[in-house]
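Recap for those who missed Tuesday's class. We walked through two folding examples back to back. For each one, the amino acid string is listed first and its predicted structure tokens come directly after. Nothing is annotated here on purpose, so try labeling regions yourself before you check the end of the notes.
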Amino acid sequence: MTDDEAMLRALQLAAAAQEWGDTPIGAVVLGSGGEVLAEAANEREKRGDPTAHAEVLALREAARVHGDGWRLTGASLVVTLEPCTMCAGASVLARVARVVYGADDPKAGAAGSLWDVVRDRRLNHRPEVLAGVRAEESGALLRAFFRAKRAL
């Protein structure tokens, strides 16, 4: 699966998160050969869990099925919105090779917008970052969600 195909799937997952009242963010973890290891959407509202971000849920599941314990060496995390500090940190700790995201998050992004956790030289692992994959679609989904939420 290509980054673009994975982002399309992440966008589908993100759209589904709205059904249970969650912010529409989706994530897919690809193995080194492009195979899908795991996928998830935000479930903070659904689970009542502040850590149930799409990235964390997908990384947990990928670690479970990957076969190398918690290390996701060679994997790519594909997510519709730039990861926050928690999710950026989780990607570093999981040792993913790449973080691919759609829309920038100037208010909480930790892959270059507000902070740059994933490329901090003080850390022992620094994933490659590819930003802007289907950014307009990702941003439009989020804007529509928050516009509708404010109208309530």
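Example two. Treat it independently of the first, because the proteins are unrelated.
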Amino acid sequence: MAGSQRYLRYIVFALFALVLLYFIGSSSSVPTANWPGYQETTSPGEPSTPSDPSKPSAPAVSHDVSQTAPSTTPNDKKLPPATAPGERMNATFVTLARNSDVWEIAKSIRHVEDRFNRKFNYDWVFLNDDDFDDQFKKVTSALVSGKTKYGKIPKEHWSFPEWIDQDKAAKVREEMKEKKIIYGDSVSYRHMCRYESGFFFRHPLMLDYEWYWRVEPSIELYCDINYDTFKFMAEKKKKYSFTLSLYEYVETIPTLWDATKNFTKHFPQHVAKDNSMKFLSDDGGENYNHCHFWSNFEIGNLNWLRSDAYIDFFTSLDHAGGFFYERWGDAPVHSIAAGLMLQKDEIHFFNDIAYYHVPFTHCPTGEQYRLDHKCSCNPKDNFDWNGYSCTARFYEINGMEKPEGYEKEQ
């Protein structure tokens, strides 16, 4: 009897083991769910088999999310192409920077590349009054999608011209320091303003190009730019553009307008008939109202800056000495030149380029545009319709209708 019970236990145990093995084998043969575009990873050392694009992807398997581990949500939106179609213009970005600016310009490059240049791959020219070091070149070249070029500014373009009275210039700097005028005591700032006013477009590296986009350290772009701005400028016959405009510090340019009137008296042929004098003056040109385009952002035509008209204008101002005896900035210099020498319709306001340079923001007026172009700026920060801005004046002298919703930003 005991032997029969022992054999019966063996038989029951064997049956249980067979049932257990059956379930284990069944569970291991469950097929893997394939998402659209899914490709199974091969074992190390085995070649992967590319998916056949002619065959439809396996349908997605429905899962109860509450019973599965979190997973990445498939993205059915196609990313924009790395390079936009169409021919490129003969254009470049240009930046005046020093080696110590490397991380600040790196931020600017990322904004420009992410919002615009990764689609177009334009070159970038970097200029410095000293040699660029390896770190600056390595960091910036890794960020720019186009070619990078590095140039040293000739000493004669970054020094006092021979006709400047050094003692007089030093005395002016001391007086401006006491009055706490911004950059009033800075020699390097004056060299920068003079260089941007009259020489950057003459650098050998810049002679290869017809169009430029000026970018400074620590700027930000807040909206996607999905078209070629250089091509737009050429097709619309524009020669100068801006995103921000404002009044210049009166203390920095007390005689700039006198020097300008001296120029127009001797070179009347350089003054355009349908110009933007009303943007610059409230009394027909007798006095300057100090409005100017903020030149830390510019997209412009280099051939215009190299023209006889502009070169004559800069040379006249340079010999007047105001870059050193006062503190003339390149912004009012460029603005006065554009306002007097270009036709009104050759100057363009880029409402659609959202831009920041401390302390001012241009955030495009128009909610739908901001939504469509993934803008990250707060419209309440927009400077355009602020009382210290000159952009409303630009609209008025050109007979342009202000963007819808501008009233809410005043």
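Answers for example two:
The two ends are 104 Å apart (CA to CA).
The longest helix spans residues 2-27.
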